[in-house]
Amino acid sequence: MSRVRPAHPVLPPPTPEPFHAGMSDAPSAVPRADIFDALKRRFGHDRFRPGQEALVRAALTGRDALGLLPTGGGKSLTYLLPAGLLSGLTLVVSPLVALMADQLDRARASGLRAEALAGPVPKARVERILADARAGRLDLLLLAPERIAGSLGRRLPELPNALLVVDEAHCVVQWGYDFRPDYLVLGGLGRCLGVPTLALTATATPPVRAELERLLALNDPVRVIQSFDRPNLSWRRRRVRDDRHRWSVLYHEVSTAPGPVLVYVTTRGDAELIAEALARRGLHARAYHAGRPAGEREAVQRDLLAGHLNRVVCTNAFGMGVDKPDVRRVIHWRPPGSLEMYYQEAGRAGRDGDPSDVILLWHPRDLDLLRRRVDRAYPPLVGLMRSEAARARLTLGGPFGGILGAVRARRAALARLRAVRGYLTTRRDLRRVLLAYLGEGGTPPGTRDPLRA
Q1: Which positions ≥6 away from 255 have C-beta within 8 Å?
Q2: Left (φ > 0), alpha (ψ -120 to 50) or beta: where does 435 sit?
Q3: Chain centroid to CA 72
Q4: Which of 207, 247, 287, 422 gets the highest tally of CB atoms within 10 A of its CB?
Q5: Using CA of residue 102, residue 228, residue 199, residue 214, what is the dihedral sign?
Q6: Do the Cβ atoms of 333 and 265 come closer than 8 Å?
Q7: Full-model pTM
Q8: pLDDT tens by residue, 72-131
Q9: Torsion-angle region of residue 136: left (phi > 0), alpha (psi -120 to 50) or beta?
């Protein structure tokens, strides 16, 4: 099966704009009264949250747009509302099956005619869904990027498309152990289909925003960048002496939490071991990771949302699409690979606005582990040809292909590692450090502390 990689002109990096919420200047083809009527009728809201209206208007006026709304900021409404007003199909590219299931439920709950194509789907069902889309019987279709990269991608131009949405758009610029090459097919897809592109994410630094616009070939996009500040979160870190001390600190923080707790770990094995250890100490906890059967993962999410489970030990496979507003504490067993990932996972605490804690446990050896992971995923030039995965990526097109792409990806990975080290060792206020890293003023520590490539 051949992969579809739509050709598109490579645009130069966009000129950075000041931190602000953009707004489409063109008049909407849909009267403003109709927009607010749909907002009330479909979602029960009298007004938009900050940034939402600008993105909705961009979609309705045919403008490309990049939206950075914090976790819990209402990203899904910015495409669900236009999907019900546009005279055509809204295509939503989404990274995870669990997230897609949640998005499908929300779309249908708002009255949209929606379907999803992810994972193994019988051919007859695929054909029925595409027939409904061609006949105008669908408002919204959710797709995994792998679907677009396959034979289905060649059939998308047959559909009455009106809007392309790339959700969790930061995934487009990830590489190495977090990279899915199928995201590269999204470059210029909106132009190929003749529709505007709406790119959405909760976390992206200024360089990542520029890279997103370039990779997706966004044309003069409306930029809506809301504040990343979460004043209700208390950001803490704890340096531990060894893993025995790490466990002691973790147990104390979990056992004294005033509400639901998420413990993020970096491996599936750690998720299982820590959940079992907590249970043996009388704290009922469940493990969640991609290696668990889908039914078990769904049961963990369901029990957590229903209030029957208050402690989940999970990898980064957990979180997207899980709307649990009253998580009171998020604890990281070890530092994650980037501050973007850390902010996104930590941001699942206190989404109801009540005071909540975010705690990161670390030891200097953790930084050595992260450096080894970078070297494996992004080998230096001298070791590049020793890595089969790296050699395979040299054949990719776009900015991640070839020797220059490999060098560029390694530099970006090392910059992320420097930022993590800066966060762990700084004496500055942690909240301000994170905000500076995400582009809200100041210079984050670690940005001028080079590591040799």
Answers
A1: 281, 283
A2: alpha
A3: 12
A4: 287
A5: negative
A6: yes
A7: 0.79
A8: 778 999 999 999 999 999 999 988 776 787 889 889 999 999 999 977 788 999 999 999
A9: left
